[in-house]
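Why does residue order matter? Because the sequence determines the fold. Keep that principle in mind as you read this record.
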Amino acid sequence: MNRLSQQHLLRQAAGFLELGELLIEPDQPLPTASATVLHRALRALEDIEPPLRQQPETMLLEAETLRALGQFEAALPLFRRAAEAVPRRIEPWLGIGWCLKRLNRLNEAIDRLREGVQASPRQPVLHYNLACYLSLAGDVQPAIEHLTKAIAIDKRYRDLTQVEPDFDPIRADPQFVAVTHLAC
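Structure:
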């Protein structure tokens, strides 16, 4: 298969992933229509030949599709290989954390997000997600520190804390209140 056809399959898979995710609601069963479209994305990716299939972009696309399907164990190795190949990219680290959290491996998710923060310390979303996971683990001080860093980099993260249930365990903590209620 020529390179143009391979690129077409990648674009097709990306489109199927985007379409499949449109109907997905957090913490709700996967709609049948989404599952159908996401499986089409996987079939398109299966037709991609090995050199392109081992590229970080392709691995991320497959990992995101598996994650959207709720196949977290299957997605993890792809996210990990992508993180090794391009450690400064945030998507693999977020995907690893997402999957591990949903597999009830919160401590491991925290460790991996810490690696992501080390690789990309100026990415507020990594600090924010790490703060969420630390909050769920009951690690108040580190959660506040990473939330403070996320907000310092991008003030919009302050607003997100108001609706984020992951912060419920520390929501009443005076430090959390201070960080999330400072004047903008």
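Residues 16 and 94 are 21 Å apart (CA to CA).
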